[in-house]
TrEMBL record:
Residue ranges constituting the Protein kinase domain according to the UniProt record: 107-326
Compositional bias of kind Polar residues: 24-34
Membrane topology note: Lipid-anchor
SMART domains listed in its UniProt record: S_TKc
Bias (Basic and acidic residues) ranges: 12-23
GO molecular function, one term: kinase activity
PROSITE patterns: PROTEIN_KINASE_ATP, PROTEIN_KINASE_DOM, PROTEIN_KINASE_ST
Primary site of residence: membrane
Protein's name according to its UniProt entry: Probable serine/threonine-protein kinase RLCKVII isoform X3
Keywords: ATP-binding, Cell membrane, Kinase, Lipoprotein, Membrane, Nucleotide-binding, Serine/threonine-protein kinase, Transferase
Higher taxonomy: Eukaryota, Viridiplantae, Streptophyta, Embryophyta, Tracheophyta
């Protein structure tokens, strides 16, 4: 989700067994996967062993005003959703719901930035750290939930790269789940590439290539540097955020999954992603590989080159899909 400037609402399509509300407009999210960056439940010989779960040791300063009950809530969420629950100590700070309400003026409309599958996003200022931030608030009736929240915290707490958005902290208090990020003033790539007003100039070619290179470096870090390696699974224009100098940063890691290691060639999983960006072989077989992310990057690159959307339902049927465009 592109969530740090004015954004559009992402759209998802879940499997029949889920009870959460789902969006129906394009592009569409594919089905929900209960096995995201966690101890896997062996379904067949192709499923990666439980030893490949995401091992995270989070460390750093914790807000002294937050009691231990809130700190324990993330571990409870991880356990309840079958996500790896090694969360003793945290790199990201914890905030109370009250602190984030103050930061956003009680989530007033003037601070509203956009909305996606996770929920609404607000601009805020946290006085204690003297920083402008972006705050995502989980919509409990939306297409993402506690599982995606936990995965996001664990993945971004483990990661450290200039082309990945920085997670500053989170709130897990009662029924409230919120994520606090660095604020990205230019919002998502989608806002600068598609449906531009007549008064806005298209991105220069050098800027487009700069953005593509930044996204590629972020993806390379997830695949080749971070341990264990991670498959992003949701690379798209709305998830590439831009700072004031058009440096690209990948965001929204709720669908991330630990990739195959050793002699494994893939991870067997239910299909998830966004229609138009999902690799055909993964969509057909459920066999997830790092190449699935590479395919999605190729779609983004085509969008940068042509200025067209991955899926555009306003065009004739034979021209709606960018990768099938003749």
């Amino acid at each position: 989700m592109g969530c740090f400037g004015r954004t559009v609402k992402s759209n998802k399509r879940s499997e029949p067994k889920t009870t959460k509300k789902n969006d129906v407009t394009s592009p569409k999210k594919l089905t929900n996967d209960p096995n995201i960056v966690h101890k896997n439940i062996n379904r067949d010989n192709q499923t990666q062993p439980s030893s490949d779960c995401l091992k995270v040791t989070l460390c750093g300063n914790v807000n002294e005003e937050v009691d231990t009950k809130e700190e324990d809530q993330l571990a409870l969420d991880a356990k309840d959703t079958l996500v790896e629950d090694e969360v003793s100590g945290k790199k990201a700070q914890t905030f109370t719901f009250g602190q984030l309400a103050v930061a956003t003026g009680n989530f007033k409309s003037d601070c509203f930035l956009g909305e996606g599958g996770f929920g609404k996003v607000y601009r805020g200022f946290i006085e204690k750290i003297n920083q402008v931030v972006a705050i995502k608030q989980l919509d409990r009736t939306g297409s993402q939930g506690i599982r995606e929240f936990v995965v996001e915290v664990l993945t971004l707490s483990l990661a450290d790269h200039p082309n990945l958005v920085k997670l500053i902290g989170f709130c897990a208090e009662g029924v409230q789940r919120l994520l606090v990020y660095e604020y990205m003033p230019l919002g998502s790539l989608d806002n600068h590439l598609h449906d531009l007003p007549h008064s806005k100039k298209p991105l220069a070619w050098n800027t487009r290539m700069k953005i593509a290179a930044g996204a590629a470096r972020g993806l390379e870090y997830l695949h080749d540097t971070i341990k264990p390696p991670v498959i992003y699974r949701d690379l798209k224009c709305s998830n590439i955020l831009l700072d004031e100098e058009y440096h690209a940063k990948l965001s929204d890691f709720g669908l991330a999954k630990v990739g195959p290691r050793g002699s494994e060639t893939h991870v067997s999983t239910r299909v998830m992603g966004t229609y138009g960006y999902c690799a055909p072989d993964y969509a057909l077989t459920g066999q997830l590989t790092f190449k699935s992310d590479v395919y999605s990057f190729g779609v983004v690159l085509l969008e940068l080159i042509t200025g067209r959307k991955a899926i555009d339902n306003t065009r004739p049927r034979n021209k709606q899909s960018l990768v099938e465009w003749e």
